[in-house]
Amino acid sequence: MRLPMLFHTLKTYDKSQFLADFQAGVTVAMVAIPLSLAIAIASGAPPATGLITAVVAGFLISAFGGSRVQIGGPTGAFIVVVFSVIMDHGYDGLVLATFMAGGILILAGLLRLGRFIALVPESVVEGVTCGIAVIIAASQLKDFFGFDAGTLPAEVLPKLAILWTARDSLSPATLAIGLLTMGLILVLKRLYPKFPGLLVAVSIGSGLVVLLQLPVDTIVSRFGALPDHLPWPQLPVITIARLIELLPSAMVIAFLAGLESLLSAMIADKMTGETHRPNAELLGQGIANVGSALVGGLPATGALARTATNVQAGAKTPVAGLIHAFTVLAVLMLAAPLAGYLAMPALAALLLLAAWNMCPPATVLHGLKAAWPERVLFLGTLVLTVLVDLTVSLGVGIVAGLALRAWRQRSATSAH
């Protein structure tokens, strides 16, 4: 197996590359901080786990992965599965499932399975992604509007029904902060695409909550203070019964991590003109998920939005990803109290826009205008993801997609 990309790039590393990587790493860290906090909260995990994952997994993905510019950490694609695992097995179950998923990814990298990503139909990827986007958006409505709806169920339709009955409890102050933050993110992204507008917008919205003493939830008011250090590594509790119980969840985490990281690396290649090493990428993702689990973090993978920001900010090598991880760590250690004052509707606005970007209208139109078999795969996996279960959706979609591919190949052979 070829070495991680970091080892290759360091052979010719120079000062100009370091300066470019330093600027990009700090810039992408400013994007990663609010996103990591928001993803952890939406997943039903303690907010600090998002930052811990960005630091540990982000460092390991850049150190051992197969892409020059990939940025790793917690991503929106995991919100659904993480929430489900925590609900069914507790947070300790999530940690063990993440640890197992890391081992599965390491094995996949050693077996050189990276090239098989091409076998997953595009319509299945798009359908599952849009389904996850719908679930994320639904999960953020309570915090965006400030509804007094108590604890909500995980299922989308019952959740929306409860929110509708609680519509009279809408908080004008909460909605105003959410709308302001959303507007600032969009304006700053359009006017200053290389500027860390996410953090600035969320900070402005949250700052107004503090200055005006608005009745709006913040991280510290809901979850308490953030820690200012990384936890010591420790192995999760492992038993045979627990391993068997969590194997399906670990398989889903591993599949999602491998799929999203390789897709992100492929898109990064198109942006940079470089070529990633898929098997090294899987190996790096596996090491990162094992490392994240050892410190009680979340599942991690290559993050497309952060990777694109890294490229746009001028990153040259994986060193940018290492600097991103160190920058997030510095914020965790030096500014944890300030991060605790980030407002919940501001973070909800961030995730609502992230959900929109996961499934923009162009993706939906592409799925609906495709040939009928692809259209069925797209709509079927979308509906199954939203209404049934992500595991079922992936299983049905991949099996149906492979069957369709085999049928078309047989038809083409018969025609000749």
Automatic annotation (TrEMBL):
The Gene Ontology CC terms held by the record are:
membrane
Q: List all membrane-crossing ranges.
A: 21-42, 48-64, 93-111, 123-141, 170-188, 195-215, 235-257, 326-356, 376-404
Q: Which UniProt keywords are present, listed alphabetically?
A: Membrane, Transmembrane, Transmembrane helix
Q: Which GO terms describe its biological process?
A: transmembrane transport
Residue span, SLC26A/SulP transporter domain: 18-363
Question: What is the topology of this protein in the membrane according to its UniProt annotation?
Answer: Multi-pass membrane protein
InterPro entries, A to Z: SLC26A/SulP_dom, SLC26A/SulP_fam
Q: Where in the cell is it found?
A: Membrane
* PANTHER family linked to this entry: SULFATE TRANSPORTER
What name does this protein carry?
A: SulP family inorganic anion transporter
Q: Which organism is it from?
A: Roseibium limicola
